[in-house]
Amino acid sequence: MDLTNKKLILERKHKKVYESNDCIIKSFSKEHPKSDVFNEALNQARIEETGLNVPKVLAVEEMDGGWAIIMLKKNGKTLKEIMESDKENIRKYMDMFVDIQLDIHSKSSPLLNRMNLKFSRQINELKELSATIRYELLTRLDGMKKHTKVCHGDFNPSNVLIGEDGEISIIDWSHATQGNAAADAANTYLLFALEDKELADMYMDIYCKKSDTARQYVQRWLSIVAAQRLSKNVESEKELLMQYIDVVDYL
Length: 251
Known about the structure:
The protein is α+β, with helices and mostly antiparallel strands. 44% of the residues lie in helices and 18% in strands. Residues 22-212 form the Aminoglycoside phosphotransferase domain.
């Protein structure tokens, strides 16, 4: 494990990501809960056991007053970079993207956190939504089928790496759960819609066709996943997410 010559490649509010010769170091601020860091590393280790091609966790260590996850580096360009540089073939890349997601959904990991419990906790904590809306969202969530498929939780083209030899790697498993694949698809749709509605609709069409899933079924998850994403408090996303939350059907 070589951590010399580490270079900052990404910075967020509570984390910094570095790369070294053969490792990726995800370093969290001292305010970030230690338990969350260890839980993320545990998620990653459990996903490794499914056989999916993901970065191997090497260590969890104290660093700069906080904690850091050290992983084996996977080389390649993100699928997002490739899609943006070759827009004429965007549908081909979207086909590939959906195939990767379906492969993820074909896996199981019985010890992963359960999606419905995580979503329920996040929605309950959303005090900016009225008690009536929270009740309707939780009622809808409770009525959804409880599956146990591996779900990435933040699946978008930035989290897929394509190596020069064509090797496909999937990164950033901090939001992984076991649950309903349609919910994971609804979340991916929202991630696209936050940037490009046309691309989001292309994704939805391809996903539903390849998975033989009714579009209406994925759409029933949109208000739920929009609410749980609202809990992340990303100011630039709030307006669009509220639009999806407002489509809740009232009894």
